[in-house]
Structure prediction request, 209 residues.
Amino acid sequence: MTEQSPDRGPGPDIVRSRLTVVSGPSGVGKSSVVAELRRLHPDVYFSVSATTRPPRPGEVEGAHYHFVDRAEFARMVERGELLEHAEYAGNHYGTPRGPVEAALDAGRPAVLEIELQGARQVRRAMPAALLVMLVPPTWETLVSRLTGRGTEEADVVARRLAVAKDELAAESEFDAVVVNADVTTAAKELLTWVLPEKSAGRRSSTTQE
Ligand code: 5GP
Prediction:
């Protein structure tokens, strides 16, 4: 990232300090918390990822995801159109760069809800981004949420729990940790990180006007 000289006023780093990445293990309730956040604050820009995963029932193209085939995803990567991308459970996921940058340039806080590898790439590409990890109140809560989903075989659940353990172990790489004991409470707390005032206080003074 280029540093702005003090006499040039707010520059890219200031705008980009409003980018918040929300990550956390499978089963922690990221989607519910982000959906509640969207309800609380519709002015925030929520990135719509591209994915090679097929749509689930009820998912809408352009709203939940941009559903693309592998060839199109590879083209997006090749053209540098993705801010970050990762493979997760056999499918590719990535954040389209253009809409996020447009939102940030317009001074709109932007939120990415992505998994850990992607969060790490954003950290490298945009060091001013704020990384928030959503965690369960207890390990047992996550175990019961993942096992309680019903249909999965025991070994699939065991693998997901192993991945979740690794993801939780990355907590120290994050700027903030939000406990999801209750969706509304967690969304309200997350909002205080997403809105620029708090992230400005949390980050360096260069994020202040
Ligand atoms: P799902 O298939 O359940 O919608 O998402 C699987 C995982 O992929 C979730 O952890 C979700 O946060 C993550 N994910 C969704 N979009 C992106 C993206 O654009 N980039 C990355 N790195 N992960 C994503």
